[in-house]
Amino acid sequence: MHRHDVLILGSGLAALTTALKLADQRRVAIVTKRQMIDGASDWAQGGIAAAVDDGDSVDAHVHDTLVAGAGLCDEAVTRLVASQAREMVAWLTANGVAFTPDPQAPGGLHLAREGGHSRRRVVHAADATGHAVQTSLLDRVRAHPNIETFEQHVAIDLITGKRAGGEERQIHGAYALNKGSGEVETFAAGHTVLATGGAGKVYLYTSNPDTATGDGIAMAWRAGCRVANLEFVQFHPTCLYHPHAKSFLITEAVRGEGGHLLLPDGSRFMQLHDERAELAPRDVVARAIDFEMKKRGIDCV
Fold first, then answer.
1. 32 with 150: CB under 8 angstroms?
2. What is the domain range of residue 261?
3. Which of the residues 120, 268, 282, 287 is marked catalytic?
4. Could you confirm whether 163 is annotated as catalytic?
5. 217-262 residue pLDDT tens
6. Number of domains within the chain
7. Is the pTM here over 0.70, yes or no?
8. Which of 116, 199, 207, 268 could form an SS bridge with 249, CB 3.0 to 4.6 Å?
């Protein structure tokens, strides 16, 4: 049996950040079903939206987010995240992330523009921001004496109070399959964090990695937790299409820097669907692409 103060399931940016924030006061275990580097975080290309420029503001960031969310965002949560974005960029920089600089910019960082934003506010590390952040935080995690990592361990279920002989609505850790030994191991902890990502792989077409199978959501549901908003699955509008190969994501920054979506005859179409054209929010762009493909019987744009 493994015993820690905090058990974190998953190894993406949420998991690594949580571990580093807690590890100075607690013993932390990170359990992940593949390698620590695997997952959607490492695949992220574009960057992190934050109002770091003197001409930008948290209010403007919140406004753009609420508009892109079509009125469905929780405004309090939106404001909380937007107001902390600048601080988190500084924290990531302090932890070794080398964002692309711009000596001429007031904040010293190059800012890109992406769909849904009214101005440039996307901090990035070239075109591989997720990898830059993930590898930097992984270095910190591996160097921390209070963090222990367990790769190739598939979390099976949470240890509920009922299973442990205590109160039913308590969680005491998780069971995980060690893929190397084939044995199920017990990870006991006073606190358990689910940072297991989404469930994109329930769909035939997704830009998510194969690890996005909704394990954490299912475990939480079985343990009696409330789950909400499962219908809100965002589909990234642009991937490279090839009829005989697996598609891969094309960063939104391509459209942010002026890239156009074209029909087979070379004509643009996004302006027919939204006045923001290629810089409309992702759901608008994805629906427009889907509409044109079905209307014209084509495999891609």
1. yes
2. 239-296
3. 282
4. no
5. 999 999 999 999 999 988 899 999 999 988 888 988 899 999 999 9
6. 3
7. yes
8. 207
